[in-house]
Design goal:
Length: 296
Amino acid sequence: MAMEVEVIGPGFAAEVKGLRLWEPLAADEVDRLRNLFAEHGVLVIRRQSLSEHEYADFCALFGALERTVRTDWASRVRPEISLITNLRGSNGNPLGGLGDGEVEWHSDQAYMANPATGAGLHAVEIPGDGGRTFWANLIAAYEALPERLKQAVEGKSALFRYQKRLDMYKDADRKLSEEGRKRTPDVLHPLVHTHPRTGKKALYLDPTTSIGIVGMPEAEGNALLGELAAHSVRPEFVYAHNWQVGDVVLWSNGFLLHRREPFPAADRRLMKRATMHLPAALHIIPDTLMLREAGA
Ligand SMILES: O=C(O)CCC(=O)C(=O)O
């Protein structure tokens, strides 16, 4: 079956049909998928049943896989895959991260220097109710900003701290290994980036880790970040995904925020999660500034 593409949601997500990801893809199919991903930011591919190696190897077509700081969520089979799940092992310990609660609007690696902006989820078990995931388009959000806010963000950088997100987590997710702490010093990224393919500007935000704006008093900077985040997740900028078992969804954190709604604790949900370093020729890769250079 030839590859078919349908634009879904408010225009920035695309569903790709006709793929069998457990079989090798032809070079022209890989090329087309890379271009589609660059243009849309969210790719949805349904009806897949993949081993962790098949899934990880597919994601690696878009960029080198990253082993994230959450080594406690890593799969034993393929450590580049994290388990996002409320399931627990026979010893009662969580098998992965993020449990069954709400996961608030965020961008995955904003707290990292040189963030790996590519992400994938493969749905293995889904709850009967809830657990949908939402993505907000920060290119559309930037374009709709009032002139006052466009001027307010121009040339500005925000400071990001992983501890802020850890403090929002529950139970074991709040703990980070010593190695994880060493890999997550505070970092700065500009608030606006330009997409290399379209030349369009996008906001770069992460309400779960941003703690201020360089050169602005703390309260004022945080008030501006709050105003930008509230504007950016207006319904007209958001795609809501209703999961089916077998879905693979890829997204770029370079110009998207995402959140997950909670689901009943008694239901089972298991997602296999991949993280990729996307290429700067095709995707927004946030610049990372050193605190010293910025005088922060
Ligand atoms: O569980 C989900 O649907 C989303 C998880 C998430 O936010 C993430 O992996 O960054």
